[in-house]
User: What shape does this take?
Amino acid sequence: MIIRPGLWIGPSATGRNGHLDWLRYRHGRQLPMTLVADELRSAMWAEDAARRVWELAHADVTGIRHVVASRVVSRPELASYLARRYALDAKLDVHHRRDRRAPHLGRVELATRYTDALARPLPSVVPDGPLGV
Assistant: This one.
């Protein structure tokens, strides 16, 4: 089995590796958070993703399994939501991929062809509604 998850959001083991860690680091040093506006990701909570990977590892399933979120979100949308959720005074510095020297992935939205219970989308980090968008 090959498991391909989306972007996991949560504290990392070292406190320095994940998107949330990066936001906290930049906030703590009063640095702007430079984000690419036209980059979208399938972002999910790390606990939900880890649980799904565990379930897949113990299930009688095979193939390439994508662990997907219920929707994709832009990097600025994700950073804004996390800043509100964790009370970070975010100073977002938003750019576009086309203006950067190094290429970026752009829209990364995982999809799955499976229909079993382990293929259902996990909740997006950014909820629909008043707290999200």
In short: Residues 2-119 form a domain with the Rossmann fold fold (CATH 3.40.50.720).
